[in-house]
Design goal:
Elements (H helix, E strand, L loop, with lengths): L2 H22 L37 E9 L2 E6 L2 E20 L2 E7 L2 E8 L2 E7 L3 E10 L6 E11 L12 E11 L5 E10 L8
Antiparallel strand pairs: 1-3, 2-3, 3-4, 3-5, 4-7, 5-6, 7-8, 8-9, 9-10
């Protein structure tokens, strides 16, 4: 195969790829110009698993994801005293809206948070409204197909926690989610997360 034949193949590939992209281009859709149902991607969620997806909600559409109850538990032994912390979060909901074809806005609410702390023979309980997290997801690649997808998700935690067990600080960070397509309709999700945290009363 000579150089001219290689050049023809490359040009054909680029032109063909550009035509396919033009047919699937959804960049004109926004929050106020809704993506038609015939062009919407398959439903993808960030809950209930703990790995975020790089795929965004289609422009102009809303999505609600809810955990009925989650119950994390921690147990620590220090200086011979065992401290056990157990929490119950009820109806934790992620409210999502598609802003553009590659970006959505998310608000994560915790309507009811209950926590019990047992240290030795003493025990305390609190129940309140939890913190609110605002997230902006931007898809870098693979939103509408392909074997690989990636995105960026900066987030800010707002101190709406009404109890004494919250740190009462505005905090934030960045999540970088990845997705891989595997054989036989399996998929793999991964993510990296970077947090900016403050001690109680330190502010943002």
């Amino acid at each position: 195969m000579n150089a001219s034949q290689i050049g023809i193949i490359l040009v054909s590939f680029i032109v063909g790829g550009s035509s396919a992209f033009a047919q699937n281009d959804k960049s004109m859709y926004t929050l106020f110009r809704q993506t038609p149902r015939s062009q919407m991607r398959e439903l993808t969620t960030d809950r209930p698993d703990k790995t975020e997806s790089p795929i965004t909600v289609d422009a102009g559409h809303f999505q609600i994801e809810t955990d009925m109850v989650t119950s994390p538990r921690d147990r620590v032994r220090e200086n011979g005293v065992e401290t056990e912390t157990r929490s119950y979060d009820v109806m934790v909901s992620n409210l999502k809206v598609g802003l553009t074809n590659s970006m959505d806005l998310q608000i994560v609410l915790t309507p009811y948070h209950y926590q019990s702390v047992r240290a030795g023979n003493s025990e305390g309980h609190t129940s309140n409204f939890g913190d609110t997290v605002v997230r902006l997801k931007y898809n870098l690649v693979g939103n509408d197909g392909g074997d690989f997808s990636a995105g960026l998700m900066p987030f800010v935690k707002l101190p709406t926690h009404s109890g004494d067990d919250g740190n009462r600080n505005t905090e934030g960070g960045l999540i970088v989610p990845f997705g891989f397509s595997l054989p036989k309709n399996f998929s793999l999700g991964m993510m990296a997360q970077f947090n900016h945290s403050k001690s109680e009363g330190a502010g943002f």
